[in-house]
Structures are given as C-alpha cells and as structure tokens.
Design a protein that fits this description.
The complex is a heterodimer of chains A (about 270) and B (about 270). With about 270 residues, chain A is an all-alpha fold. Helix content of chain A is about 85%, strand content about 0%. In chain A, helix 4 (about 50-65) crosses helix 12 (about 230-260), helix 5 (about 65-100) runs antiparallel to helix 6 (about 100-115) and helix 10 (about 175-210) packs antiparallel against helix 12 (about 230-260). Chain A is flat. Helices cover about 85% and strands about 0% of the residues of chain B. Chain B is built from twelve helices and no strands. Chain B has helices at about 5-10, 10-45, 55-65, 70-100, 105-120, 125-135, 135-160, 165-175, 180-215, 220-230, 235-265, 270. In chain B, helix 4 (about 70-100) packs parallel to helix 7 (about 135-160) and helix 9 packs parallel to helix 10. Chain B is elongated, with a radius of gyration of 24 Å. The chains are: A mainly alpha (about 270), B mainly alpha (about 270). At the A-B interface, helix 2, helix 6, helix 7, helix 10 and helix 11 of A face helix 2, helix 5, helix 6, helix 9 and helix 10 of B.
Chain lengths: ~270, ~270
Amino acid sequence: MNIILKGWSAYTRMTARWPGIAAIVPFIPVVLLWTAVSEAGVFPRAFFPGPGDVVRSFFTLTYKGILPDYLQDSLIRLITGAAVGMALGIPLGILIGTSRWAHRACWPILLFFQAIGDIAWLPILLIWFGFGLTTMTFVIVYTVLFPVVLNTVLGVESVPRDLARAARSLGASRARVLWEVTLPGALPNIITGLRNGLGYGWRALIAVEIIVGTSGIGFMMFDARRAGSTVEIILGMIILGLLWYIVDAWILAPIERATGKRWGLVTS
Amino acid sequence: MLVMPSQKIRPRWMTRGFSSIAGAAMFVAPLLVLVILWAIVIPLFQINPRVFPSVGAVGTAAIDSIRDGTLINHVGASLLRVGLGTLLGVVTAVPLGIAMGVSPAVSTFLTPLFRFFSVLAGIAWIPIATLWFGYGFGAIIFVIFNAVFFVVAYNTLLGVSTIPYSLRNAAASLGAGRWALLTQVLLPGALPNIVTGIRTGLGFAWRGLIAAEMIATNVGLGYMLFVARDFYRTEVIVLGMIVIGLLWLLIDRLLLVPLERSTIERWGMVRRA
C-alpha cells in the first residue's frame, strides 16, 4: 500500500512538472490489456489484432507512402473546408447578430438546415457533383459553417449594447465599432464555434471518405474493411484519435482559453 | 418601469399561450417563405427534376410513402435504433462516470482516455463495427452506443469532479450515508453535465446513424436516401432530408433543450457554489 502511495505521489509530481505525461501514461494500461487479450486469443486474431500488428502495419504503410499521402489528403480537405466555412460563417454570423430583421428571417432557417446534418446531404450532392472533391468540400464547409454562424451570433449578441453605444458617442464610426468592439467581443464565441465545427467536420470527413472514397484516412479504413484487414482499421482509428487529440488539446483549446482570458471582461 | 394595465388584466396563461403561438408563427414564417421561393424558382428556371424536385413531387412522394407505410417503416427503424443505442449508452455511462468521478485521483488519471475515445465517437467506429457484427442492426446499435457512451461518461466524470468538496463534506458531516451522498449530492450535482453530455452524444449519434444506415443496412432513413440516389429520385432524397431535419429539430427543441434548461435552472445553485 505504502509503495503504491509513494508511486502515486511521484507520478503526480511528475505530471505537475511535465503535463504531457498525464496525457500519455493512462494509455499504458489500456495497451497492456489490449496486448493481453489479443495474446490470450479470446477473439480470433483476424478480428482482434494486437498492438504489435498495428505498429507493424503503421511502418509498412508509411514505408509504402500510402499513409502519409492519405493523411495529407484528409488534412488538406479539412483545412480547406474549415477555411471556407469560417470565411462564410463569421460575416454571416455578424450580420445576423447585429441586425434584428436578419436574425428573425434567418434564425429558423439556420436551425432547420443545421438539423438536416451534413451526411444527409451526401446523396443529393453525389447526384449534383458526382464522386469527387467538390462533394467532400461541400459537406465539410456545410458542417463547419453552422456551428460558426450560430456561435458568432451568440457572441455578437453577448456584447453589451452600452459598449457599442459608448464607442459611438466617443465618435467611432460604424465600421470601427464593428472592428474594435463587436468582433473582439464575439471572438471567444467564434473560436468555440470553430472548435465545435471542426469536431463535427472531422467526423463528417471520415463518413464522406468512407462513402465517396477515393483517398484519405476514412477511405483507408473502409478499404481495409472490404479486404477484412482489421489491423488497418484500428490503425486508422488510432491515427484519427491522436490527430484530433493533438489539434484540439494543443491548438484549439489554448486559443480558446487565450481569447477567453484576453476578452473575458467583455463577455462577462 | 411602469406596468402596463393591459398586461395585468390578461391572465398569465393567455399571454403565454399567445406569445408562444406568435413565436411559433415567427419561427415558421421564414421557412414558409423558403418553400414559396422553392415553388417559384423550380418552374421558372425549368430545373430538371433529376437535379432538384418540385414542391409537388416531394409532396406526392410524401403522401405515397406514408400511404404504403414505407416512410413510417424507415422512420420507426431509425428512431428505434437511436432510442435503444442511447438508452444503453446512458444506462451504462452514468454509473461508470459517477464511480470514476468520486475520486479526484482516478478522474484526472482517466480524463485523457475518455477524451481520446469521445473524439472517436460515432462514425469512426463504422468500419470495425460492421466487421465485428456484420451489416445490420448490431453494428448500428454499437456505433450509436459508442457515440453516446463515451461522451456521456466523460461529461458525467467532469460533472462529478466539479462538485465542490465542501458540499460533499457538509452532507457527510450532517450524517449522510454513502447512498444519500450519491442520490442527493453527486447525482443532482452532475445532472446538468450529464444532460449536456446526452445532448452532444445524441447529436453525434444521429449523424452516425444516418451515415451507418447509408453503409450498413437495408432499412432506415439513411438507407432510404441512399437507395433513392441510385434511381435519381431526388424527390425522395429531399423528402428524406426534410424528415431528418424535422425529426432532429423536434428531438432537440422539444426534448433535449427543455431538459437541459430545467436541470441547469433547478440545480443552478450547486454549480455556482
């Protein structure tokens, strides 16, 4: 018991110094358990490969150059979609947030189209654009757009009217109020929207790659499914999880926290 | 502020009823405008029904599919899957989340794991689910269960670990046993987070369902859409999209949002403390 406690306290001290450890160590027992189950042969090897097989397939696929190519394709699609979605979503959100009429006219439509969901668009998009890049980009833009718009509207509305009025009475032009009051005030919400949107977009990308399927991580997984090779499916899942974990925890969450802190005064 | 006399005279239920009807009208009006626009544009530009259907075609498709029972069949299958998967997910995730959240050491240790798996929630499980369970009911339930389970468990864990220690100590020092602590402090305190988790998880599950039905089954809304694509029956596709949108809007606005609001209002005190 004493040893366990000592070990635990050493662990907490270590995680306090290097927070990265806290994100890695919990996975060790999972991997060990996984190894044990696959080695014990509870499930047939073909259905339930061990960690060793997955690592091996990672190296062979990287060596063949398939994995880097697919990863690049997926990431480029996601980034393009996110960029276009933001470029459309933020101005639209600000327009809807600042004008009451635009809000009344657009809000129900936005909610309805958000409810339809990205993947339900796939069949008709396939008829319009065929199996290709346009279809994929459309779906991702669509997925990213709605969380960004809805959160931008919320953010713009959360900026107290008095601040805008104060800036106006001090002689700021409308454009300047927009640039220096509304936009910074809405920024934390915009980032939250982007984070949600990317979360949904990421999943949509996988679904689209599975169904439309020419390249990408989702395609790799489904191609492996057709061939019945579980190893590559699991490899794909791990890569997806890791990538999103890195993007979310190390890029998006800090940005969100930073804007929240920076502009905390405005929103509260 | 002055109270208007007219406001005082009217009984409360009347104004509320009126305002909700007016609100509903305000909500429906833009959608109606959209439908009217749709009805005008299609014949005006003589758009090929293979590209986009007319309002009438979608209407007849709706009536036909309701009459021969296929629409009800597909909707029923989809709702049954979502309902069953969600129920399974919530029933297993909440106790697990609470059990893990009780000890701060365990919860900080396990948080990265659950974050990792809640990232994978839903669609990423489709390939392996179809391999393990074959195409059909089992695979889809598994996908939905996964989407709901990890998100709800993670949120429950968060909810329990944010309950202030002073509340737990206070209850314990007033003589609350383990059971009372669980049912009167931990569970209610985590409830807003649990409900938020269910809402997010269901959002992922719903998308996952549509995707899974396109890939892995022979009944359900996603399947209906995907088969219609093979025959270029855009009116069925658009009908399906409208049904999917309306269903989710109903589930979200009439079930999840009020649930979320009422738990946060009811237990607002606990979270602020």
